[in-house]
């Protein structure tokens, strides 16, 4: 079984290396066109139903079918562009980030938040090329790390971590390195997260999103409350051939509140509301093909039962025989 998994992981890694090498010989525009076409085909065959469902939830009958169709096409173009840029990012991330990203005057919100010396929790949705976000800040001298879950394939995980490291970006695993994440904040650094998708592995709560309860990760708010750190929302907005990195004012946790759970929920609702507003204003830039409303209360309850059962089994296995 282990050998089969090793072969699978090696095959995935090799396929990625071959694909990147082949794509690298193409001019960037041709590469983006090719990958956009592939994304559009994949979207039509696999993700079209999910995208349609999400758009109906978000906009109902307020927009014409042609508008929803154009959003799906724009998604494919954005994905193709992002994948094409990742090919360049692997080779020279700092150069790409310097060329493709600029910040506007809202950068002052980040500077003000960091001035308190407690670091900053920065959350961003899947807009534009989110990998260039931390690379751009690192090139400007900002310290911090991105937080996520490592791919199951260790070879791909090393590729991802290495690609970011070459761009000056540290990666911290949400499950394996919680103390390192807190230390980053306590040292005045930035902790970046992308919490806008439905995640079966992340602790969450149901909060309103486009008028419907959506399972939403509470990790960013939990970090902000634990470290008494400001929480900022930020976005990579596509602007021609570049991305504009823009920030919104920080949401501050209340250090005196005793009900930490309600404070975590308040902060989670705050950033989710901001994300919804920004997505409504820029619907062509979000990843509608993701099943944002996949987790239902019944599914969440079943996952809790399974986790509790697994924990009980582990506890029984470690008990000393009497």
Q: Helical amount among residues, as a percent range?
A: 55-70%
- H and E string: HHHEHEHEHEHEEEHEEHH
Strand order of the largest sheet: 1-9-8-2-5-3-4
Number of domains: 1
How much is the average pLDDT?
89
Helix/strand structural class: alpha/beta
List how many beta strands DSSP finds.
9
Q: What percent of residues are in strands?
A: 5-15%
Question: Strand count, sense and closure of the main sheet?
Answer: 7 strands, mixed
Count of helix runs: 10
Distance between the termini: 35 Å
CA gyration radius, whole angstroms: 21 Å
Structural summary, described in words:
The chain is built from ten helices and nine strands. It has 322 residues and is an alpha/beta fold. The chain has one domain. The strands form two sheets. The chain has a seven-stranded mixed sheet with strand order 1-9-8-2-5-3-4, with helices on both faces. Strands 6-7 form a two-stranded antiparallel ribbon. The longest helix has 36 residues.
How is the topology of this model organized?
Layout: H1 2-24, H2 28-59, H3 65-100, E1 101-103, H4 107-114, E2 120-123, H5 132-139, E3 144-148, H6 154-166, E4 170-173, H7 178-186, E5 190-193, E6 204-209, E7 212-217, H8 219-227, E8 231-239, E9 242-247, H9 260-281, H10 297-318
Parallel strand pairs: 1-9, 2-5, 2-8, 3-4, 3-5
Antiparallel strand pairs: 6-7, 8-9
